[in-house]
Write a structure and sequence with these properties.
The protein is an alpha/beta fold and about 325 residues long. Helix content is about 50%, strand content about 10%. It has 14 helices and eight strands. Strands 3-2-1-4-5-6-7-8 form an eight-stranded mixed sheet, sandwiched between helices. Helix 7 runs parallel beside helix 11. The longest helix has 23 residues. The termini are far apart. The structure holds NADPH dihydro-nicotinamide-adenine-dinucleotide phosphate and 1,3-dihydroxyacetonephosphate. The site of NADPH dihydro-nicotinamide-adenine-dinucleotide phosphate has 25 residues, from helix 1 and helix 3.
């Protein structure tokens, strides 16, 4: 039996895919009004057009997840630390699988370290890679990375793979979580480039240089280059920088065009600030990421950002 904490688009999509494949899934929604609507109408407005299958059980009581062995954490990254701090103690003994893509702004930790610091004693895994919630929920073919540095990895890989959701396993948790977190920042920048009308050539350059700086920071923190080149890094970077389905890309589009951004979970904003601080501490150059952080904080105008990026000293690729 699988528990999922966080009934947003992604938690619900995973619950739908796993339940369709025959697993009994318990999905925890903290908002009573949302829970009631989901129970009554068997839909989640955050995942339009998808009917919730029979094997997907809904609850507003976190203690109900006690009957599950594995719990997926599917809330925004900045909510994870507080969620775990107030979770029932037996939840921390489950195998935990973080699905959040980001870096905690207070501790500068990724999901694995946040779960460890909260006292999690079971497996601590990370599920990440190129996948939009709606694609997963509709049963479209998807491939993700499941990273965990513990002997439960292969069992978890089988538990969470379905006929349409193919999980590749990795022991490189740091690499998987940093790829998933940092690509969101580059996706905001890619959106800015397109929104401002700089064109596809500029976006390709941005993605490539963005990947280079993602790799610099990740390897300084112990990630393996092949992880960054895999689904959780390059794969997700490509998806998020090129699809209008991405909230990070869409947020960037609005910033670039000078129009109001839609209300949404945009993980890259906090991650840009966290990664900029990590990079500064380690003496790593991350010009695109730090520019996104400054733009998000209204510390610089778009014109100034472009001038600064383009007037950096010429260097070897
Ligand atoms: N959507 C996607 O396509 C994908 C998302 N992800 C990642 O999944 C994570 C969640 O994103 P997504 O589901 O899309 O975001 P949504 O904005 O759709 O939903 C976030 C959900 O988390 C819930 N939540 C927030 N804080 C808590 C808490 N303390 N306890 C329980 N639930 C909480 C929210 O509840 P409430 O409404 O009550 O605030 C909401 O239901 C992000 O890190 C994202 O990067 C990864 C891959 C794909
Ligand atoms: O992580 C995602 C796709 O892999 C979802 O991206 P957004 O959060 O930008 O929508």
């Amino acid at each position: 039996m699988i528990g999922i904490a966080g009934a947003g688009a992604f938690g619900t999509a995973l619950a739908v895919a796993l339940a369709h494949d025959g697993r009994e899934v318990w999905l925890y929604a903290r908002d009573p009004a949302q829970l009631q609507e989901m129970q009554h109408r068997r839909i989640n407005p955050k995942l339009p057009g998808i009917t919730l299958p029979q094997k997907l059980h809904l609850t507003g009581n976190l203690a109900d997840l006690a009957i599950t062995e594995t719990v997926l954490l599917a809330m925004p990254m900045q909510a994870m630390r507080a969620f775990l701090a107030s979770a029932p103690p037996d939840l921390l003994q489950k195998d935990l699988v973080a699905c959040s893509k980001g870096i905690d702004l207070t501790t500068l930790q990724g999901p694995g370290s946040v779960m460890a610091a909260a006292g999690a004693t079971g497996a601590r895994a990370m599920l990440t890679g190129p996948s939009f919630a709606s694609d997963i929920a509709r049963g479209l073919p998807t491939a993700l990375t499941l990273a965990c540095a513990c002997p439960r990895l292969e069992a978890l890989q089988h538990l969470l793979s379905t006929a349409t959701l193919r999980l590749y396993r990795s022991e490189d948790v740091i690499g998987a979580e940093l790829g998933g977190a940092l690509k969101n920042v580059i996706a905001i920048a890619a959106g800015i480039v397109i929104g401002a009308g700089f064109g596809d050539s500029a976006r390709a350059a941005l993605i490539t240089r963005g990947y280079a700086e993602m790799s610099r920071l990740a390897s300084s923190l112990g990630a393996k280059p092949e992880t960054l080149a895999g689904l959780s890094g390059l794969g997700d970077l490509i998806l998020t920088c090129t699809s209008g389905q991405s909230r990070n890309f869409t947020h960037g589009l609005a910033l670039g065009a000078g129009t109001p951004a839609p209300e949404a979970t945009v993980e890259g904003l906090a991650t840009a600030r966290a990664a900029t601080r990590l990079a500064r501490e380690r003496g790593i150059d991350m010009p695109v990421t730090s520019m996104v952080a400054r733009l998000a904080e209204n510390d610089i105008t778009l014109g100034e950002a472009v001038r600064e990026l383009m007037s950096r000293p010429l260097k070897q690729e």
